[in-house]
Write a structure and sequence with these properties.
Elements lengths: L1 H11 L5 H9 L4 E6 L5 E4 L7 H4 L6 E4 L4 E6 L5 E4 L11 E3 L2 E3 L9 E4 L9 E9 L2 E10 L4 H27 L4 H7 L3 H26 L4 E10 L22 E10 L3 H37 L7 H31 L2 H5 L10 H5 L1 H14 L9 H4 L5 H19 L3 E4 L3 E4 L2 E4 L6 E7 L2 E7 L17 E2 L9 E7 L2 E10 L4 H5 L6 H11 L2 E2 L7 H7 L3 E8 L6 E3 L4 E5 L10 H13 L2
Parallel strand pairs: 3-10, 20-22, 22-24
Antiparallel strand pairs: 1-2, 1-4, 4-8, 5-9, 6-7, 9-10, 11-12, 13-16, 14-15, 16-17, 17-19, 18-21, 19-20, 23-24
Length: 603
């Protein structure tokens, strides 16, 4: 049946002329096709490949298939070639080869296709899946797109848009942390996010801005211009220094017209700098006024609480007032430096008014570009946040997009329960904007709450031997090949290690796959390995007792993008967690994480 429909499918899919198609296929030393049962066994030849890992993420999909149907694969090529794709790591195929936890398929099978994914038991979720073929020392990559039947694409796009905003929010949280403003402090300050972003911009740039203003107070860019003037004709103009005079002269004095050179400060970048400094001074004046208003209100509250100087609110208020004074002083310092520049000769000579287009010198001269950047970030604070290009490369890797999105949901869930960010990726400046450096493999974020501490590790590798562990950074170990979960949450209380939560983010319909023991054998082994991780640092135990008697990972969470009632598998200490944009279950995550933390504190 597949053979008959395959032939008819080839006729329908002939996009190129026979000659052009043959020439294109000759460039590939293998042949790859997908076959779907849902549309009568139609054949989809896959020929759109690129070489680079980043290039594939900018490429269009080579084949698009509708979700929830059986997908067959035909792969022909030299015997040493191998095929793999996203999703093969969680299914069990009879002829697959496992290399570093990834499944690879050999070509051949006598030219017959074989079932790759079964729509009933393991439907691929809508998104992009990277296909990889290796052989002869080369790597070919392409994209397979699974399209939704109903509203799945909107949820998929919403996840992408939501991730952008949440990365910006996380950047902002770390920016606040770097200027020593905690969540409780933020409440005491009573400031909106725009004001806090201005705090950060001034904190980051003030020293450099004052230095630049000191230089501009002494000198600025100038040009030599030629202009027409006159000299008195009764002087030896050839032998004396010619100084241009105006066209007017005393009546009766003979003059000669000349073209002479003159230095001018009225150049485009100085006109721009003058306009920027005037506007920057206005912004800083408003900034100082806003600080004074907040300080005045907070001062009244402090006066009312003066009798309770040991009270936590009073201490937070005093700390907040100290922050106000510090940032007010920095803003005033910059304003004073601007006044010094305003007394310079070039400042008076340069015309006022912001030019319609930015002079090129603004981008070439770091002094002018720094002033423009500070002005822009103070005027529109929200625009000072951006998203790393790292994430742009992940948009077409839907499984990676889902992993990043889920990781941020756990951070949000902890913050919702009163946890404060302590350490994490650096906030860097790029093209005049602030952004969080990429959440790459092994990224660690630390949060604190009273005497508790949590370390969240994204896609980190667990040590293989007890001797490689460390109480503070790597308390767990396992000798299993499955030792790289998407998320690990290490929990500490009063400096003691109390256990971990291990979670994997599966952009698959993992619950339905789990119900088929044979098809899910691979992920059952994986989750078992996570559950059986060990430690020699459990609470206050001796090392030998900890290794023999502790169970630091009480549960493993399988997170996937489909809403189901709360489910689990006690035999595997496994809990299924529904998480995706728009799901009602999203609101349960914070409480579930908190309950797990409580369980770690129980004997």
């Amino acid at each position: 049946m597949i053979t008959r429909s395959e032939r008819s499918g080839e006729k329908r899919n002939r996009i190129f002329s026979p000659g052009r198609r043959n020439r294109r296929e000759k460039k590939l030393p293998f042949r790859l096709s997908f076959i779907t049962k849902g549309d009568g066994g139609r054949v989809y030849p896959f020929t759109r490949f690129v070489n680079g890992e980043e290039a594939v993420l900018e490429e269009s999909a080579g084949v698009s298939l509708v979700e929830n149907q059986d997908i067959w694969l035909r792969f022909d090529g030299p015997p040493d070639f191998r095929f793999t794709m996203d999703g093969l790591d969680v299914v069990t195929l009879p002829h697959a080869e496992k290399i570093d936890g990834q499944s690879y398929l050999r070509p051949g099978w006598k030219g017959e296709p074989f079932l790759l994914f079964e729509g009933r038991d393991f439907p691929l979720v809508p998104g992009y899946y990277v296909i990889t073929v290796t052989g002869a020392g080369k790597i070919w990559r392409g994209l397979l797109e699974i399209t939704p039947k109903f509203m799945g694409r909107q949820s998929w796009q919403a996840m992408r848009e939501e991730l952008v905003e949440e990365i910006k929010d996380l950047s902002f949280d770390f920016m606040k942390r770097s200027i020593h403003i905690s969540r409780s402090m933020e409440g005491e300050l009573g400031l909106k996010s725009a004001m806090l972003l201005r705090f950060y911009a001034i904190s980051e740039e003030s020293d450099r801005v004052v230095q630049v203003l000191g230089e501009l107070a002494r000198t600025a860019n100038s040009r030599i211009v030629r202009k027409q003037g006159v000299v008195r004709s009764n002087r030896d103009a050839a032998g004396a220094h010619i100084r241009c005079a105006s066209g007017k002269s005393r009546e009766g004095t003979p003059v000669l017209p000349v073209i002479c050179s003159e230095v001018t400060w009225n150049v485009a970048e100085n006109r721009f700098a003058k306009a920027i400094l005037q506007k920057l001074d206005e912004n800083l004046r408003s900034f100082v006024q806003e600080i004074d208003d907040h300080a005045r209100r907070l001062g009244k509250v402090q006066d009312a609480n003066a009798g309770y100087y040991k009270n936590r609110d009073f201490k937070n208020g005093a700390n907040a007032l100290s922050h106000f004074e510090k940032y007010r002083a920095r803003a005033v310092h910059i304003r004073n430096a601007i006044r010094m520049v305003a007394e310079a000769t070039w400042f008076h000579e340069a015309e006022s008014g912001m030019p319609e287009t930015l002079p090129m010198t603004v981008f070439l001269d770091p002094r002018y570009s720094l002033l423009y950047r500070l002005y822009r970030n103070l005027k529109n604070p929200a625009d000072s946040l951006s998203v790393s290009s790292f994430y742009q490369f992940q948009w077409k890797r839907t499984d990676k997009l889902y992993e990043l999105w889920c990781f941020l949901q756990f951070i949000k869930a902890l913050e919702e329960k009163g946890w404060d960010l302590a350490t994490g990726p650096a906030v860097v400046q790029e093209d005049g904007k602030y952004r969080l450096s990429s959440l790459e493999e092994g990224t660690e974020i630390t949060l604190s709450r009273n005497d508790e501490k949590i370390r969240l590790i994204y896609d980190g590798t667990v040590p293989q031997h007890a001797s490689d562990t460390d109480r503070e950074t790597d308390p767990l170990y396992t000798n299993n090949v499955h030792r790289r979960p998407d998320l690990r949450m290490d929990y500490y209380r009063n400096g003691a290690y109390y256990g971990s939560l291990v979670a994997d983010f599966k952009y698959r319909d993992i619950f339905f796959l789990w119900r088929d023991a044979a098809r899910s054998a691979g992920i059952r082994t994986q989750f078992n390995a996570y559950r059986d991780m060990n430690t020699k640092f459990y609470r206050g135990m001796e090392e030998s007792d900890s290794i023999r008697n502790s169970r630091p990972v009480k549960e493993v969470w399988a997170v996937f993008p489909k809403e189901i009632p709360p489910r689990g598998d006690e035999d595997f200490s496994l809990r299924f967690i529904s998480l995706a944009p728009g799901l009602k279950a999203n609101g349960n995550l914070a409480e579930m994480v908190e309950r797990y933390i409580v369980s770690l504190n129980e004997n």
